[in-house]
Every structure is written in structure tokens, then in C-alpha cells.
Q: What sequence folds into this?
């Protein structure tokens, strides 16, 4: 009887996990376009099945990142873009991807491959990523210079 109850419990847990996964919003299929400050497109990539994307290396400068889709999505999505030092993080309505897209301005301070991700905002991974992206950075300590005291031998 123990084997049966254990097996039944395992089946119920697997079923519950499957329902939770099925109810999550799908990761949008997005086209990611990066334009420089003059408006010239410098990179165009697509996200993968997990919602992650990486651009070719970008030179330092200011860029606009546009994420858009030809499909309509509902639900809330966490969008993270990492241009190096500062990160962009926002929660957006999925319908905006097909209605002109989501645009973010980012500053690249050294040559870097711009990375980012889009995921269901209700997922634990999204919550953790948003928390890390919005975490205030510790201030850099200001060095202090003191005069050495006189030495006696």
C-alpha cells in the first residue's frame, strides 16, 4: 500500500507541476533591434525559446533597444537588458510587443555584447532577475589620504 500511495502522490505532484507550467504565459517570439544615437540599426537578433537574446559586440555609446513581435501576447512580462554596468528592468503588458514594441534606451560604456531576456513576470526566475537588476549598488568608498605621523627612532 505504501508503494501505491507514494506513486499516487508523485503523480499528483507531477500533474500539479504540469498545470502550473501550462498556465504560465508563453515566452514571446521577439525581434530585437538595436539602433545607435543617429537612428542607424546596428544589430538585429531574435530571442531564443527561453526568451534570451545576445547582440554582436557594440561599441561604447547610447542605443535604443526595440523588442517587438508579430504575434499578440497577453499577461505581464519581465524585460531585462544588460548593456554592461547599468541594467534595464521593467514589467510590461505582453500586448505592447505587437503594438509598436517596447523600447529602452541604454548606455554602453565599453565594448560589449548586449544581453537580455523576456520571461513571464509571475515566474520565480523573473522575480529574482528583477530583484537583482533593481538592487541599488553600494556606493564606492571615497579614499582618504592622511599625513603620516612623524616617526621617532
A:
Amino acid at each position: 500500500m505504501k508503494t501505491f500511495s507514494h506513486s499516487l502522490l508523485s503523480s499528483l505532484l507531477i500533474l500539479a507541476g504540469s498545470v502550473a507550467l501550462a498556465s504560465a504565459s508563453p515566452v514571446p517570439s521577439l525581434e530585437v533591434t538595436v539602433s545607435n544615437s543617429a537612428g542607424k540599426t546596428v544589430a538585429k537578433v531574435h530571442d531564443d525559446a527561453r526568451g534570451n537574446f545576445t547582440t554582436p559586440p557594440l561599441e561604447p555609446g547610447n542605443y535604443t533597444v526595440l523588442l517587438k513581435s508579430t504575434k499578440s501576447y497577453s499577461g505581464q512580462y519581465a524585460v531585462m537588458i544588460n548593456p554592461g554596468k547599468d541594467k534595464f528592468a521593467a514589467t510590461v503588458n505582453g500586448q505592447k510587443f505587437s503594438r509598436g514594441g517596447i523600447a529602452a534606451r541604454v548606455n554602453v560604456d565599453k565594448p560589449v555584447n548586449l544581453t537580455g531576456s523576456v520571461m513571464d513576470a509571475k515566474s520565480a526566475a523573473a522575480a529574482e532577475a528583477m530583484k537583482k537588476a533593481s538592487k541599488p549598488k553600494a556606493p564606492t568608498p571615497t579614499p582618504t589620504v592622511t599625513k603620516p605621523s612623524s616617526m621617532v627612532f
Observations:
- Residues 2-23 form the longest helix (22 residues).
- The longest strand covers residues 112-120.
